[in-house]
Amino acid sequence: MYTYNTSLKPLQIGELTAEKPIIQGGMGVGVSRSSLAGAVAAEGGIGIISTAQIGYDEEGFERDQAGCNRIAISKHIRRAKEIAGGRGLVGVNIMVALKHYKEHVQEAVKAGADVIISGAGLPMDLPKLVGDSVTKIAPIVSSKRAAQLILKMWAHRYERTADFLVIEGPKAGGHLGFSREQLKDVEALDYDQEIKEIIACKKVYEEKFHTKIPVIVAGGIFDRSDIDHALELGADGVQIASRFVATKECDAAEEYKQAYINAKKEDVQIIQSPVGMPGRALRNEFIKDLESDRKPITKCYNCLEKCDPRSVPYCITKALIVAVRGDIKNGLIFCGENVDRIHEMTTVHDLMQELCY
Description:
By secondary structure, the chain is α/β, with parallel strands linked by helices. It has two domains: 11-252 and 343-356, Alpha-Beta Barrel (TIM Barrel); 254-340, no CATH class. It is built from 13 helices and 13 strands. The radius of gyration is 19 Å and the shape is globular. This is Probable nitronate monooxygenase. InterPro entries: Aldolase_TIM, NMO. Keywords: Flavoprotein, FMN, Monooxygenase, Oxidoreductase.
């Protein structure tokens, strides 16, 4: 049995404090909305809502995706905070690759998001978009090079730095900041060393701006031993996504959750996303069909900034919506590397207890 090294310390992000240094990762479309994020915040963690096509079930979505998404961002942030009851923090994950990235950031700030985490691209303009609001911002980085590039640009262009950093490793779910070649042999990457180098490079900006930049490690974090390992590397907290899917509070359909519970190691596959990045997902009929032919797109949902419906292999919006609604054969189910270790349904309370005590 694993013995905990120490009790977990609260996570301090500027003047904001999370009692537990655990961020629930953002998962779209619709997997992490207000029910899940609010429950995590209520336990003293940081609950994250994914804004990717968040309004998929709003009336009028088929004709006005952008408008419905803005409505849903505001609604789900407010609702998550109500569920949290004044505990923890509530934030959003906004992909840089989104066509309406700017509007999503502005709507989240307006709705009172405590934090914005941004990846699937380099969020170079994020400081400008949040302005002088109290919302804290963090880029998702997977390499020292990306971290240095973003921190240098933010310092030069906006005379500010990140409020915290999320380092997302090669075992994460969804879109990955690694090449297919790198993902073929994850262990050869020696990613612990990369984490240490990212932590070292941000110290320059801590000194420059006289502030602490907490580091959050994500990707493959499954249990308390993983959390302790990340902290030993110098991290201040962790981000966990896949484990929160198999909870009663998760916003996805029950069939989606059961797909995680029933997943085997051999079901996990690296795919190519229309976002232009590799992604980790569960191999199902949808994935198998793509191996022989693309799925023609008959309707564009205006989700990605750089997407040509005539050439991409499938519509990622349609694929993710189909899955989150429960059709696990014909939709896209993103997942983390360790999904096969999830064997039962739980609650956010019990999972947080398991991870923290």
